[in-house]
């Protein structure tokens, strides 16, 4: 029967039977496959790579057995070509059109804010990938105000982080002439915001998902599972009567970088209703694959109308010895192509290049282990690596790396290990953990107190990752009357999480009684400005570069008039140093952790602190 390439108007298929070299044909097809249909014994092919497949098939010895349907070329073009909806306009915006004039940047970028606003008002799709603190909110609100005043845009949906939603409301008041009576915040307390009298809806990404689910359940009350293929929100009824275009603004757009998240899928159903689409984030992607969903949200042509898996296959080598779906690497020539696409629809400003900011003095603060904490750390590491070697027969780098966060609990707060899913069988180790006293035995507390004493008049933020660590720090620093917020903070009755955050920040900023704020990195890393503080101390963190990078810019930004001091406390000769190095260099995992020499004896005894074991 040979090899047959055909289409069913939805995709391209390949079947092959009775070929001379079955394995060679199979390996060739697999390079371009999207999926396999075992029932019909056929391979679904990525249309964007179909022409390459045809060329490869024609070089095989079985080429005389190759049958290609006549309309294949026509269908490949149809599947892969999608016209761009990006439009360009003549912008007449001037400084006099702005409610608040732009700041003067550092030479030669004095007019960078005006330039960015011009970009936004001269096209309907654009991204501000400027670093934190450069004034992205000011820029896109100023552009929105310009469009609104000229009646080019009326209905607007603005999505941000939870904290960013309330911050955005205040900035709309500050930077625009928009009637705030026509602005609504959507979420738990307002699940039906898209009504005629409302022109601008603000929501968190989670709140938007909640509003969408509510609309679906209202429409289909008998359905138990929320599973919609069409947008359930009344955008057409909300937008059409105005007779003008609408806008979708995605602030902190890195939060939608996972295309498989349900919130991303729901947002993709909503995006086509908005002709104007703008993105803004200081940390768009620490890995190339995180650009896909953000580019799709601007315009599907930017990802060549491919779904995520097809796009990955186009730009990267997918499949490793550990997983058929893991990304091995991005193809160098495709990285250049992707960078060109991104540069064509975005601007990237680095704060230290465009702003006249005070300096940010970054100082690592290395401390030695205290005896009990060192014993706990050494024993835990030794036990875990021993079990891993017994189970796997060898210490493979990637599998060891999976346990780093667990091993670091012995540094952050050993008591967390007692409630961890990994049971501790070593009774001596268990006893040491139970007797661990955070206030006396933690290795970092003396350094923390040291740093605080160096800055007796400064407002200070102490960043941490674990709620239990925050609670212990609160007790340790009780004499300073600190404020505290973390992922498990008790929220006062009739107060939302975002309102609680705002209250804590306002107390910290305005009150002389509270000089120290103990803040969870995951809770307070976006959409807040705290330039009243000028000292920040990282007590512990996780390996999430985006969250860490966002948090570090809360005080070193527009409006800061003092020198900023950033301290990172790390326990020397331990994985704590490796964690810091990874946050300093987001590629550290790939360049160092995954090298063959990582698990050398020297590294085992130095980084894992296993002397005497």
Annotation field: number of helices: 25
Largest sheet: 7 strands, parallel
Envelope shape = globular
Low-confidence stretches: 593-599
Please identify the top-level CATH class of the largest domain. Answer: Alpha Beta
Distance between the termini: 65 Å
> Can you give the helix content as a percent range?
25-40%
Structure characteristics:
613 residues, 16% strand, single chain, Rossmann fold, alpha/beta, 3 domains
Word description of this protein:
With 613 residues, the protein is of the alpha/beta class. The protein has three domains: 79 residues; 221 residues, Rossmann fold; 256 residues, Rossmann fold (3-Layer(aba) Sandwich). The chain contains 25 helices and 20 strands. The strands form four sheets. A seven-stranded parallel sheet has the order 8-9-7-10-11-6-14, with helices on both faces. Helix 22 links the parallel strand 19 and strand 20. About 1% of the residues have low confidence.
Secondary structure elements and pairings:
Elements: E1 2-7, E2 12-17, H1 22-30, E3 33-37, E4 42-45, H2 50-59, E5 66-68, H3 72-80, H4 112-121, E6 125-128, H5 136-149, E7 153-160, H6 162-175, E8 183-185, E9 200-204, H7 205-219, H8 235-239, E10 245-251, H9 262-270, E11 276-280, H10 291-298, H11 308-315, E12 316-318, E13 327-330, H12 332-344, E14 346-347, H13 351-354, E15 360-367, H14 371-392, H15 397-401, H16 404-412, H17 427-435, H18 438-441, H19 445-454, E16 460-464, H20 467-476, E17 483-485, H21 497-510, E18 516-520, E19 535-538, H22 545-551, E20 564-571, H23 575-584, H24 588-593, H25 601-606
Parallel strand pairs: 1-5, 6-11, 6-14, 7-9, 7-10, 8-9, 10-11, 15-20, 16-18, 16-19, 17-18, 19-20
Antiparallel strand pairs: 1-2, 2-4, 3-4, 12-13
